[in-house]
Specification:
By secondary structure, this protein is mainly beta. The chain has one domain: Exo-inulinase, domain 1 (Jelly Rolls, Sandwich), CATH 2.60.120. The protein is 8% helix and 30% strand. It has 1 helix and 15 strands, in the order αβββββββββββββββ. It has one helix at residues 2-21, and strands at 51-54, 62-64, 73-75, 78-80, 88-90, 97-104, 120-124, 128-132, 166-173, 176-177, 183-185, 188-193, 196-203, 225-228, 234-242. Strands 1, 3, 4, 6, 9, 12, 13 and 15 form an 8-stranded antiparallel beta sheet that branches. Strands 2-5-14-7-8 form a 5-stranded antiparallel beta sheet, with no helix packed on it. The chain has a two-stranded antiparallel ribbon with strand order 10-11. It is globular and about 70 Å long. Mean pLDDT is 90; it is low at 5-9.
């Protein structure tokens, strides 16, 4: 036992002596220097390197499924779903990214969907949905607002009320596929709603279908989609950063 103690003491002294011999500069580096990105002047505003997808004035960054101009409306700087007009997709394709979206469900709205009003969704890479929905009515928990649709309920319910703007900040690591479409690593997501973390580094099991089980099918960069399910929902201040 005494010999073991002496050996451990010797190891500690050797490590201390070794650390003292290190030149601090040997563990420092000075290149490459990270690029400068200027943050927005107010919380939620796009930083200088963001791709602004909707600033209240134009739908030029979006298209309908058939490639034509979207039929959603712009009212007082808000992007408003027109029931029956179909989903909208970004012209640009994205992989790993940071997304900011703000949405509002009207105080009074016709319940066009069979479930709660305000049914829409943010579909990252067109395949992976974060649910947009009013929370006043009962709904299956992995389909409530903020859920990774039919995969993961939010850790907490940070939604406030109809008629109030909600914010979503999404941090997305895309799934990776190798040669021949071989699956290599799953998608990972962190979501913050109204400043509250509702998904923390959640590892997706695959896509988010309304029917059946999730799975992964090989793909590369894909557009961001906002879905239309027969309800009126307003959006504003939508931007994305490539990571």
């Amino acid at each position: 036992m005494k010999n073991i103690v002496l050996l451990l003491v010797s190891i500690v002294f050797v490590k201390i002596a070794s650390a003292q011999e290190w030149d601090p500069a040997s563990t420092e580096w000075y290149h490459p220097v990270p690029p400068v990105v200027l943050p927005g002047t107010l919380p939620g505003q796009p930083p200088s390197d963001a791709v602004v997808l909707f600033d209240g004035t134009s739908l030029s960054k979006w298209k309908s499924k058939d490639g034509t101009a979207p039929k959603w409306q712009i009212n007082n700087g808000e992007l408003v779903i027109v029931p029956g007009a179909g989903h909208i997709y970004t012209h640009d394709y994205f992989g790993d990214c940071q997304i900011h979206v703000e949405f509002k469900i009207p105080e009074s709205t016709e319940n066009g969907s069979k479930r709660s009003p305000g049914n829409s969704g943010v579909h990252i890479q067109d395949k992976y949905e974060i649910q947009i929905l009013d929370n006043d009515d009962d709904i299956f928990i992995n389909g409530m607002v903020g859920s990774v649709y039919k995969q993961a309920a939010p850790l907490v319910n940070a939604y406030t009320n109809r008629g109030e703007w909600q914010s979503l900040d999404i941090y997305w690591t895309a799934p990776k596929f190798g040669t021949g479409g071989v699956f290599e690593s799953p998608a990972v997501i962190t979501v913050v709603m109204n400043g509250v973390v509702i998904h923390n580094h959640y590892v997706l099991k695959g896509n988010t279908p309304s029917r059946g089980l999730p799975d992964y099918q090989a793909h590369g960069r894909l557009p961001l989609r906002l879905s239309e399910h027969g309800d009126v929902v307003s959006y504003r201040n939508i931007w994305i950063r490539n990571l």
